[in-house]
Automatic annotation (TrEMBL):
Pfam families: 3D, MltA. PANTHER family: MEMBRANE-BOUND LYTIC MUREIN TRANSGLYCOSYLASE A (PTHR30124:SF0). One of its GO terms (molecular function) is hydrolase activity, hydrolyzing O-glycosyl compounds. Residues 1-26 form the signal peptide. Keywords: Cell wall biogenesis/degradation, Lyase, Signal. The keyword RNA-binding does not apply. Residues 172-329 form the Lytic transglycosylase MltA domain. One of its GO terms (cellular component) is outer membrane. The lineage of its organism: Bacteria, Pseudomonadati, Pseudomonadota, Alphaproteobacteria, Sphingomonadales. This is peptidoglycan lytic exotransglycosylase. One of its GO terms (biological process) is peptidoglycan catabolic process.
Protein backbone atom coordinates (compact mmCIF):
# COMPACT_ATOMS: atom_id res chain seq x y z
CA UNK A 1 0.00 0.00 0.00
CA UNK A 2 1.05 3.48 -0.36
CA UNK A 3 0.80 6.14 2.17
CA UNK A 4 -0.90 8.32 -0.36
CA UNK A 5 -2.74 8.06 -3.61
CA UNK A 6 -3.64 4.69 -4.97
CA UNK A 7 -3.70 2.29 -2.06
CA UNK A 8 -4.66 -1.07 -3.20
CA UNK A 9 -4.03 -3.58 -0.81
CA UNK A 10 -5.68 -5.41 -3.23
CA UNK A 11 -4.66 -7.12 -4.37
CA UNK A 12 -2.38 -12.50 -4.11
CA UNK A 13 -3.24 -15.27 -5.97
CA UNK A 14 -6.67 -13.71 -6.31
CA UNK A 15 -8.06 -10.63 -7.98
CA UNK A 16 -7.69 -7.33 -6.14
CA UNK A 17 -10.92 -7.47 -4.23
CA UNK A 18 -10.01 -10.80 -2.67
CA UNK A 19 -6.93 -9.26 -1.26
CA UNK A 20 -8.58 -6.10 -0.14
CA UNK A 21 -6.73 -4.79 2.82
CA UNK A 22 -6.94 -1.57 4.75
CA UNK A 23 -10.28 -0.77 3.36
CA UNK A 24 -13.58 0.33 4.80
CA UNK A 25 -17.10 1.03 3.75
CA UNK A 26 -18.09 3.94 5.98
CA UNK A 27 -21.62 2.86 6.82
CA UNK A 28 -23.81 5.72 8.02
CA UNK A 29 -23.05 6.30 11.74
CA UNK A 30 -25.79 5.97 14.33
CA UNK A 31 -27.98 9.02 14.58
CA UNK A 32 -27.76 10.01 10.91
CA UNK A 33 -30.98 9.58 8.98
CA UNK A 34 -30.61 7.72 5.71
CA UNK A 35 -33.60 9.50 4.27
CA UNK A 36 -34.22 8.29 0.74
CA UNK A 37 -30.67 7.11 0.22
CA UNK A 38 -30.28 4.24 -2.27
CA UNK A 39 -27.39 3.04 -0.09
CA UNK A 40 -28.51 -0.53 0.49
CA UNK A 41 -30.78 -1.56 -2.40
CA UNK A 42 -31.97 -5.15 -2.20
CA UNK A 43 -31.47 -7.03 -5.42
CA UNK A 44 -33.28 -10.13 -6.64
CA UNK A 45 -31.28 -13.35 -6.75
CA UNK A 46 -31.94 -15.79 -9.53
CA UNK A 47 -32.54 -19.50 -8.88
CA UNK A 48 -28.90 -20.11 -9.68
CA UNK A 49 -27.91 -18.00 -6.67
CA UNK A 50 -26.42 -15.35 -8.93
CA UNK A 51 -27.55 -11.74 -8.35
CA UNK A 52 -29.47 -10.47 -11.35
CA UNK A 53 -28.36 -6.83 -11.03
CA UNK A 54 -25.24 -4.84 -10.25
CA UNK A 55 -22.93 -7.18 -12.10
CA UNK A 56 -21.06 -5.05 -14.66
CA UNK A 57 -19.08 -6.98 -17.27
CA UNK A 58 -15.67 -8.31 -16.42
CA UNK A 59 -13.05 -8.14 -19.17
CA UNK A 60 -10.74 -11.10 -18.91
CA UNK A 61 -8.45 -10.05 -21.73
CA UNK A 62 -6.96 -11.85 -24.69
CA UNK A 63 -5.14 -15.13 -23.97
CA UNK A 64 -1.44 -15.10 -24.82
CA UNK A 65 1.59 -17.36 -24.47
CA UNK A 66 4.24 -15.95 -22.11
CA UNK A 67 7.93 -16.06 -22.89
CA UNK A 68 9.74 -18.85 -21.05
CA UNK A 69 11.75 -17.88 -18.00
CA UNK A 70 15.47 -18.54 -17.70
CA UNK A 71 15.89 -21.79 -15.69
CA UNK A 72 16.61 -20.75 -12.10
CA UNK A 73 15.64 -21.61 -8.55
CA UNK A 74 12.59 -20.12 -6.89
CA UNK A 75 13.17 -17.40 -4.34
CA UNK A 76 13.77 -18.71 -0.81
CA UNK A 77 10.78 -18.13 1.43
CA UNK A 78 12.82 -15.92 3.74
CA UNK A 79 14.38 -13.78 0.99
CA UNK A 80 14.12 -10.08 1.80
CA UNK A 81 15.78 -8.61 -1.28
CA UNK A 82 16.32 -9.34 -4.95
CA UNK A 83 19.95 -10.21 -4.30
CA UNK A 84 18.93 -12.63 -1.54
CA UNK A 85 16.32 -14.16 -3.84
CA UNK A 86 18.97 -14.75 -6.50
CA UNK A 87 19.12 -13.55 -10.08
CA UNK A 88 20.16 -14.54 -13.57
CA UNK A 89 20.85 -12.43 -16.63
CA UNK A 90 17.77 -12.06 -18.81
CA UNK A 91 17.42 -11.91 -22.60
CA UNK A 92 18.68 -8.98 -24.72
CA UNK A 93 16.19 -6.12 -24.70
CA UNK A 94 16.19 -6.14 -28.50
CA UNK A 95 14.63 -9.60 -28.35
CA UNK A 96 11.66 -8.48 -26.25
CA UNK A 97 8.41 -7.73 -28.08
CA UNK A 98 8.09 -4.14 -26.85
CA UNK A 99 5.28 -2.20 -28.50
CA UNK A 100 6.29 1.31 -29.61
CA UNK A 101 3.33 2.97 -27.90
CA UNK A 102 4.03 1.11 -24.66
CA UNK A 103 7.68 2.14 -24.86
CA UNK A 104 6.67 5.80 -25.20
CA UNK A 105 4.36 5.58 -22.17
CA UNK A 106 7.07 3.84 -20.16
CA UNK A 107 9.66 6.45 -21.16
CA UNK A 108 7.38 9.26 -20.00
CA UNK A 109 6.79 7.47 -16.68
CA UNK A 110 10.50 6.76 -16.28
CA UNK A 111 11.32 10.45 -16.77
CA UNK A 112 8.96 11.32 -13.91
CA UNK A 113 10.62 8.73 -11.69
CA UNK A 114 14.21 9.75 -12.35
CA UNK A 115 14.69 12.47 -9.70
CA UNK A 116 13.53 10.10 -6.96
CA UNK A 117 15.17 7.01 -8.48
CA UNK A 118 18.60 8.64 -8.30
CA UNK A 119 18.15 9.58 -4.62
CA UNK A 120 16.32 6.60 -3.13
CA UNK A 121 18.12 3.86 -1.27
CA UNK A 122 17.51 0.71 -3.30
CA UNK A 123 16.43 -2.09 -0.96
CA UNK A 124 16.84 -4.72 -3.69
CA UNK A 125 20.63 -4.72 -3.44
CA UNK A 126 20.84 -4.54 -7.23
CA UNK A 127 21.51 -0.85 -7.86
CA UNK A 128 22.56 2.42 -6.27
CA UNK A 129 21.33 5.90 -7.05
CA UNK A 130 24.36 6.91 -9.18
CA UNK A 131 23.83 3.85 -11.40
CA UNK A 132 20.72 5.52 -12.83
CA UNK A 133 22.30 8.90 -13.62
CA UNK A 134 23.37 8.15 -17.24
CA UNK A 135 20.01 6.63 -18.19
CA UNK A 136 18.10 9.48 -16.57
CA UNK A 137 20.22 12.06 -18.35
CA UNK A 138 19.63 10.30 -21.67
CA UNK A 139 15.89 9.98 -21.01
CA UNK A 140 15.43 13.73 -21.16
CA UNK A 141 16.80 13.81 -24.71
CA UNK A 142 15.50 10.50 -26.02
CA UNK A 143 13.34 10.65 -29.14
CA UNK A 144 13.06 6.95 -29.98
CA UNK A 145 11.71 5.21 -26.86
CA UNK A 146 12.51 1.68 -28.04
CA UNK A 147 16.08 2.65 -28.87
CA UNK A 148 16.45 4.33 -25.49
CA UNK A 149 15.56 1.20 -23.54
CA UNK A 150 17.58 -1.02 -25.87
CA UNK A 151 20.72 1.11 -25.57
CA UNK A 152 20.62 2.05 -21.90
CA UNK A 153 19.43 -1.10 -20.14
CA UNK A 154 19.98 -4.80 -19.71
CA UNK A 155 17.59 -7.34 -18.21
CA UNK A 156 17.76 -9.40 -15.06
CA UNK A 157 15.41 -12.13 -13.91
CA UNK A 158 14.79 -12.31 -10.17
CA UNK A 159 14.80 -15.92 -8.92
CA UNK A 160 12.69 -18.12 -11.23
CA UNK A 161 11.01 -15.12 -12.87
CA UNK A 162 7.52 -16.57 -12.46
CA UNK A 163 5.30 -13.51 -12.43
CA UNK A 164 1.80 -13.05 -11.05
CA UNK A 165 -0.09 -9.86 -11.88
CA UNK A 166 -3.42 -8.34 -10.92
CA UNK A 167 -4.91 -4.95 -11.78
CA UNK A 168 -6.10 -1.80 -10.09
CA UNK A 169 -7.80 1.37 -11.24
CA UNK A 170 -9.01 4.78 -10.08
CA UNK A 171 -12.69 4.38 -9.21
CA UNK A 172 -15.32 7.01 -9.91
CA UNK A 173 -18.35 6.92 -7.66
CA UNK A 174 -21.32 9.18 -6.98
CA UNK A 175 -20.59 11.69 -4.22
CA UNK A 176 -21.45 15.13 -2.91
CA UNK A 177 -19.51 17.77 -1.03
CA UNK A 178 -22.52 18.24 1.26
CA UNK A 179 -25.00 15.81 2.74
CA UNK A 180 -28.24 15.55 0.80
CA UNK A 181 -30.90 13.00 0.03
CA UNK A 182 -29.25 10.04 -1.68
CA UNK A 183 -25.76 10.97 -0.45
CA UNK A 184 -25.59 9.85 3.17
CA UNK A 185 -22.42 7.81 3.65
CA UNK A 186 -19.70 10.02 5.15
CA UNK A 187 -16.18 10.15 3.75
CA UNK A 188 -13.92 11.13 6.63
CA UNK A 189 -10.74 13.14 6.73
CA UNK A 190 -8.01 12.53 9.31
CA UNK A 191 -9.31 12.69 12.92
CA UNK A 192 -7.81 15.32 15.18
CA UNK A 193 -7.00 12.75 17.90
CA UNK A 194 -5.26 10.20 15.64
CA UNK A 195 -1.58 9.89 16.59
CA UNK A 196 1.13 8.10 14.59
CA UNK A 197 4.19 6.93 16.50
CA UNK A 198 7.49 6.03 14.83
CA UNK A 199 9.01 3.20 16.89
CA UNK A 200 12.49 3.54 15.40
CA UNK A 201 13.96 5.45 18.40
CA UNK A 202 12.72 2.83 20.89
CA UNK A 203 14.58 -0.30 19.76
CA UNK A 204 16.72 -1.40 16.85
CA UNK A 205 14.40 -4.30 16.02
CA UNK A 206 11.52 -1.80 15.68
CA UNK A 207 13.32 0.36 13.12
CA UNK A 208 10.94 1.52 10.40
CA UNK A 209 7.80 0.38 12.23
CA UNK A 210 4.97 2.76 13.01
CA UNK A 211 1.79 2.40 15.01
CA UNK A 212 -1.34 4.53 15.15
CA UNK A 213 -3.68 5.14 18.07
CA UNK A 214 -4.89 7.88 20.39
CA UNK A 215 -4.07 9.23 23.82
CA UNK A 216 -6.54 8.38 26.57
CA UNK A 217 -5.51 10.05 29.81
CA UNK A 218 -1.91 9.01 30.30
CA UNK A 219 -2.18 5.93 28.09
CA UNK A 220 -1.67 5.39 24.36
CA UNK A 221 -4.47 3.08 23.17
CA UNK A 222 -5.61 1.58 19.87
CA UNK A 223 -7.80 3.78 17.72
CA UNK A 224 -11.49 2.80 17.35
CA UNK A 225 -12.10 0.06 14.80
CA UNK A 226 -14.41 0.25 11.83
CA UNK A 227 -17.54 -0.84 13.68
CA UNK A 228 -17.02 1.80 16.38
CA UNK A 229 -16.39 4.46 13.75
CA UNK A 230 -19.56 3.53 11.89
CA UNK A 231 -21.46 3.79 15.16
CA UNK A 232 -20.34 7.38 15.74
CA UNK A 233 -16.88 7.24 17.36
CA UNK A 234 -15.63 10.04 15.09
CA UNK A 235 -18.38 12.53 15.97
CA UNK A 236 -16.72 15.89 16.54
CA UNK A 237 -13.26 14.45 15.93
CA UNK A 238 -12.95 14.06 12.16
CA UNK A 239 -14.02 16.29 9.27
CA UNK A 240 -16.44 14.86 6.73
CA UNK A 241 -14.90 15.90 3.45
CA UNK A 242 -17.71 14.51 1.28
CA UNK A 243 -20.67 12.12 1.21
CA UNK A 244 -20.99 9.00 -0.93
CA UNK A 245 -24.20 7.63 -2.42
CA UNK A 246 -23.26 3.97 -2.03
CA UNK A 247 -21.16 2.44 0.78
CA UNK A 248 -20.32 -0.59 -1.34
CA UNK A 249 -18.77 1.63 -4.00
CA UNK A 250 -16.96 3.57 -1.28
CA UNK A 251 -15.69 0.30 0.17
CA UNK A 252 -13.93 -0.51 -3.08
CA UNK A 253 -12.72 3.03 -3.55
CA UNK A 254 -10.97 2.61 -0.22
CA UNK A 255 -9.49 -0.67 -1.42
CA UNK A 256 -8.01 1.23 -4.34
CA UNK A 257 -6.91 4.09 -2.08
CA UNK A 258 -7.92 7.00 -4.27
CA UNK A 259 -10.63 7.88 -6.72
CA UNK A 260 -13.04 10.41 -8.10
CA UNK A 261 -16.37 11.57 -6.75
CA UNK A 262 -18.88 12.40 -9.47
CA UNK A 263 -20.76 15.37 -8.03
CA UNK A 264 -24.46 16.14 -8.55
CA UNK A 265 -23.62 19.24 -10.62
CA UNK A 266 -21.47 17.19 -12.99
CA UNK A 267 -18.16 18.22 -11.44
CA UNK A 268 -15.49 15.89 -10.12
CA UNK A 269 -13.77 15.85 -6.73
CA UNK A 270 -10.63 13.71 -6.45
CA UNK A 271 -9.76 12.13 -3.11
CA UNK A 272 -6.77 10.12 -1.95
CA UNK A 273 -5.46 8.19 1.03
CA UNK A 274 -4.50 10.41 3.97
CA UNK A 275 -4.17 8.01 6.88
CA UNK A 276 -5.59 4.88 8.52
CA UNK A 277 -6.74 3.89 12.00
CA UNK A 278 -3.85 1.53 12.65
CA UNK A 279 -5.99 -1.58 12.94
CA UNK A 280 -4.98 -4.79 11.19
CA UNK A 281 -6.90 -5.39 8.00
CA UNK A 282 -8.86 -8.40 6.91
CA UNK A 283 -9.57 -9.05 3.25
CA UNK A 284 -13.26 -9.84 2.96
CA UNK A 285 -12.82 -11.53 -0.39
CA UNK A 286 -10.57 -14.13 1.20
CA UNK A 287 -13.16 -14.63 3.94
CA UNK A 288 -15.86 -15.17 1.33
CA UNK A 289 -13.71 -17.65 -0.53
CA UNK A 290 -12.90 -19.59 2.63
CA UNK A 291 -16.57 -19.71 3.63
CA UNK A 292 -17.74 -20.84 0.22
CA UNK A 293 -19.67 -17.63 -0.42
CA UNK A 294 -17.92 -16.95 -3.73
CA UNK A 295 -19.09 -19.30 -6.45
CA UNK A 296 -17.47 -19.97 -9.83
CA UNK A 297 -18.15 -17.00 -12.04
CA UNK A 298 -18.48 -14.63 -9.06
CA UNK A 299 -14.77 -14.42 -8.25
CA UNK A 300 -14.38 -10.84 -9.41
CA UNK A 301 -14.74 -7.45 -7.82
CA UNK A 302 -18.07 -7.13 -9.59
CA UNK A 303 -19.28 -10.45 -8.19
CA UNK A 304 -18.28 -9.47 -4.65
CA UNK A 305 -20.13 -6.17 -5.00
CA UNK A 306 -23.25 -7.97 -6.17
CA UNK A 307 -23.12 -10.27 -3.15
CA UNK A 308 -22.77 -7.37 -0.70
CA UNK A 309 -25.74 -5.59 -2.22
CA UNK A 310 -27.94 -8.66 -2.47
CA UNK A 311 -28.09 -9.05 1.32
CA UNK A 312 -27.38 -5.67 2.95
CA UNK A 313 -27.33 -6.91 6.54
CA UNK A 314 -24.92 -9.76 5.86
CA UNK A 315 -22.91 -7.50 3.58
CA UNK A 316 -22.52 -4.87 6.29
CA UNK A 317 -21.50 -7.49 8.84
CA UNK A 318 -18.98 -8.98 6.44
CA UNK A 319 -17.37 -5.63 5.70
CA UNK A 320 -17.19 -4.86 9.42
CA UNK A 321 -14.93 -7.87 9.88
CA UNK A 322 -12.23 -5.66 8.40
CA UNK A 323 -11.37 -3.46 11.39
CA UNK A 324 -9.13 -1.22 9.30
CA UNK A 325 -10.52 2.19 8.32
CA UNK A 326 -9.14 4.64 5.78
CA UNK A 327 -9.22 8.44 6.01
CA UNK A 328 -9.06 10.60 2.88
CA UNK A 329 -7.99 14.03 1.73
CA UNK A 330 -8.96 16.02 -1.34
CA UNK A 331 -6.39 15.83 -4.12
CA UNK A 332 -5.53 18.64 -6.48
CA UNK A 333 -3.12 18.62 -9.39
CA UNK A 334 -2.11 15.54 -11.39
CA UNK A 335 -2.85 12.15 -10.00
CA UNK A 336 -3.61 9.71 -8.59
CA UNK A 337 -0.35 9.47 -6.71
CA UNK A 338 1.65 6.32 -6.18
CA UNK A 339 4.11 5.36 -3.46
CA UNK A 340 6.80 7.60 -4.94
CA UNK A 341 4.54 10.63 -4.49
CA UNK A 342 4.28 10.86 -8.28
CA UNK A 343 1.26 10.53 -10.58
CA UNK A 344 0.75 7.00 -11.84
CA UNK A 345 -0.01 6.50 -15.52
CA UNK A 346 -2.61 4.18 -17.02
CA UNK A 347 -1.07 1.25 -18.93
CA UNK A 348 2.41 2.28 -17.81
CA UNK A 349 2.63 2.24 -14.00
CA UNK A 350 2.82 -0.96 -11.98
CA UNK A 351 2.98 -1.65 -8.26
CA UNK A 352 5.73 -3.95 -7.03
CA UNK A 353 7.53 -4.95 -3.86
CA UNK A 354 10.43 -2.46 -3.48
CA UNK A 355 12.54 -5.17 -1.86
CA UNK A 356 12.69 -6.91 -5.24
CA UNK A 357 12.12 -4.12 -7.78
CA UNK A 358 13.68 -0.64 -7.42
CA UNK A 359 10.87 1.94 -7.37
CA UNK A 360 11.13 3.82 -10.65
CA UNK A 361 12.69 0.95 -12.60
CA UNK A 362 11.22 -0.43 -15.85
CA UNK A 363 9.87 -3.98 -15.87
CA UNK A 364 8.94 -6.15 -18.84
CA UNK A 365 6.02 -8.51 -18.20
CA UNK A 366 5.25 -11.38 -20.56
CA UNK A 367 1.92 -12.74 -19.35
CA UNK A 368 -0.92 -15.03 -20.39
CA UNK A 369 -3.08 -11.92 -20.94
CA UNK A 370 -1.92 -9.92 -23.93
CA UNK A 371 -3.25 -6.57 -22.66
CA UNK A 372 -1.17 -6.79 -19.47
CA UNK A 373 2.02 -7.83 -21.26
CA UNK A 374 4.65 -5.26 -22.13
CA UNK A 375 6.84 -2.58 -20.62
CA UNK A 376 5.82 -1.05 -17.27
CA UNK A 377 7.48 1.23 -14.71
CA UNK A 378 7.38 0.38 -11.00
CA UNK A 379 5.96 3.52 -9.40
CA UNK A 380 3.74 2.13 -6.68
CA UNK A 381 3.48 -0.45 -3.91
CA UNK A 382 0.60 -2.32 -2.30
CA UNK A 383 -0.13 -3.94 1.04
CA UNK A 384 -0.68 -7.29 -0.68
CA UNK A 385 1.93 -6.82 -3.39
CA UNK A 386 4.68 -8.78 -1.69
CA UNK A 387 7.47 -10.98 -2.92
CA UNK A 388 9.58 -11.44 -6.00
CA UNK A 389 7.76 -11.12 -9.34
CA UNK A 390 4.44 -9.97 -7.84
CA UNK A 391 2.88 -7.02 -9.71
CA UNK A 392 -0.29 -4.94 -9.80
CA UNK A 393 -0.91 -3.12 -13.08
CA UNK A 394 -2.64 0.28 -13.20
CA UNK A 395 -5.41 0.81 -15.76
CA UNK A 396 -6.58 4.38 -15.15
CA UNK A 397 -10.18 5.46 -14.62
CA UNK A 398 -13.54 4.71 -16.23
CA UNK A 399 -15.70 1.68 -16.86
CA UNK A 400 -13.22 -0.07 -19.15
CA UNK A 401 -10.49 0.23 -16.52
CA UNK A 402 -12.86 -1.00 -13.84
CA UNK A 403 -14.02 -3.96 -15.90
CA UNK A 404 -10.50 -5.08 -16.77
CA UNK A 405 -8.74 -4.40 -13.45
CA UNK A 406 -11.57 -5.95 -11.45
CA UNK A 407 -11.10 -9.39 -12.93
CA UNK A 408 -7.45 -9.47 -13.96
CA UNK A 409 -5.22 -12.31 -12.86
CA UNK A 410 -2.31 -13.07 -15.14
CA UNK A 411 0.74 -15.31 -14.92
CA UNK A 412 3.93 -15.47 -16.90
CA UNK A 413 7.48 -14.17 -16.78
CA UNK A 414 9.05 -10.94 -15.51
CA UNK A 415 12.33 -9.33 -16.51
CA UNK A 416 13.60 -6.28 -14.63
CA UNK A 417 15.44 -3.60 -16.61
CA UNK A 418 18.55 -2.24 -14.90
CA UNK A 419 21.25 0.17 -16.16
CA UNK A 420 23.88 -1.38 -18.41
CA UNK A 421 26.85 -2.60 -16.38
CA UNK A 422 24.76 -3.65 -13.37
CA UNK A 423 25.13 -7.37 -13.98
CA UNK A 424 28.90 -7.15 -14.42
CA UNK A 425 29.17 -5.23 -11.17
CA UNK A 426 27.01 -7.76 -9.28
CA UNK A 427 29.34 -10.52 -10.41
CA UNK A 428 28.62 -13.90 -8.91
CA UNK A 429 25.31 -13.25 -7.13
CA UNK A 430 23.41 -15.41 -9.56
CA UNK A 431 20.69 -17.81 -8.56
CA UNK A 432 21.43 -21.50 -9.09
CA UNK A 433 19.68 -23.11 -12.03
CA UNK A 434 16.75 -25.43 -11.37
CA UNK A 435 17.50 -29.13 -11.74
Amino acid sequence: MRAQGVWRVSVIGLPLFLLASACSNAIVPAGIDRGTSPTWPRVPVASTGQPTRYTPGVKLGTPATPMPAIPAAAAPADATSAVAAGWVAGPPIASLPIDAAAARRALAAFRLSCPSLQKRADATGLTKGPDWVPACAAAGQAGDANAFFRDRFETVQIADGRAFATGYYEPEIAGSRSRRAGYETPIYGVPSDLVEVDLTPFATDLAGRKIRGRVEGSRFVPYPDRTAIEEGALTGKAPIIAWAADPVELFFLQVQGSGRLRLPDGGVMRIGYASQNGRAYTGIGALMRDRGLVQPGQASMQGIMAYLRADPDRGRALMRENKSYVFFRELTGPGPLGAMGLPVTANASVAADPRFVPLGAPVFLSLDRAEASGLWVAQDTGGAIKGANRFDTFWGAGEDARAFAGGLTARGTAFLLVPRGTLARLGNGRAPARP
